[in-house]
Amino acid sequence: MPNASMHHVVNLTDISLRAAKRCCVAGATEAAEGACFDAELHLHFDQICVRASEPSGTSAALLHCCTLDQVEARDRCLAGLPRSHDGDLEVAGVGAGSKPPPPQAPPEFKGDICKEHAEENARLYDWLVWEFSLRYPLTSLSLPVMLAGGYITGVTTCCLVEQEHTACLAALDEEFKNKVAHKIFKAKKQCQLLKSMEKHDFQDMILVVVSQQSPSLSVDESKRIALRVENSTRNCCLKHADGFCLYTKSAIHDEICLDKGILSHHPRLAQCCRSLGSPRLRCSQGVTEKFHSILDTSSLLSLEEQCRFSHDQPEEMHD
């Protein structure tokens, strides 16, 4: 297991344990615990910005995040920055146009991956999530989680079911290289689609998907999520033309889960947001109660446009 990735996993573990000791108090309400964990995360980012204020060649990207007025916007901006080899946010030397590493399966382990799987499965999973997140820094959180979960499932089969572990693991690596390469291809198609469409047309297309995925959202809430998806995808396509800019249905639910205003009005969605990856997607898709007026796309799009966007949604949005 590479020292770089494990170092970061250990750092995250230390932060989480510190937060758990402070926040998991007997008798505390769920809301109080959640607020405490949020405060711990804000404190962690506060410390990063204090370091960034020192005259040490701080990157423009990091300075930009730390100068944002709203704490939530700052934390979200910092969470999306590239990491250094030791897993920390790079305080210096990060160019705005830095590119993610090329697509590939997780690197080979120096030790016995089946032994690692048997003895430290949770740590192996956390490391895989970090590795995928590091390679694709501008994608949604659910996608690295899904990739890590799929890889762990393959490792489990190879180590516990198949007799030839080495051959099975080699085939798994090749399968993942092909799977990730396919997602990269779809991401490039999505960037081409975005560039070929007018800004409002792309937003309308995303808006239809948002209304289908989360019918309980109000018109304004759906528009807000669609705008975020459009902006994030556009920024990714501009900065990382060969990067991992794929926005799927999972990404839409990730954006919803980052909006505390929406979650405060939709408690069942808030429950879904406690999970990640496929479980979050399945849970969120099942939330259909209507707290506000439902998005009526007929007031926004012509019948012809509705049919076209609903029928011809790009393959990239069907994951």
Automatic annotation (TrEMBL):
SUPFAM superfamilies: Serum albumin-like. Gene3D superfamilies: 1.10.246.10. Residues 1-178, 179-319 form the Albumin domain. One of its GO terms (cellular component) is blood microparticle. The keyword Cell wall biogenesis/degradation does not apply. Keywords: Disulfide bond, Repeat, Secreted. It is found in: Secreted. Its main location: secreted. It holds the Pfam family Serum_albumin. The keyword Secreted applies. One of its GO terms (molecular function) is small molecule binding. This is Serum albumin SDS-1-like.
